[in-house]
Predict the structure.
Amino acid sequence: MYKNRLADGSCNICGRKVARLRSGLSPKVSQRALAERMQLEGVDLDKNAIQRIECGKRFVTDIELRALAAIFKVPAEELLSEE
C-alpha cells in the first residue's frame, strides 16, 4: 500500500520551514499577508490554506512550492530539506 504522508502523519515536508521562514521575515509577516503575497505570485491561497500547510494538514503542489521559494528568496530544495 502506498503512503503519501510522512511518518509523523504530516502531508508535507515544507510546512514547518514555511512557518519558520514566515515568522523570520522582518517585519514579521502574518499568514494572511503570506496568502496575499502568494496571490501576487499567481497562486490562489487564503489564510486558512497557509495555516494548514504550516501545521502539515495540507499537501503542497509544485506550483505552490515554487511560489513560496520565490517569496522567501530560497531554492525550492531548501523548503524540501528535512532538518
The mean pLDDT is 93.
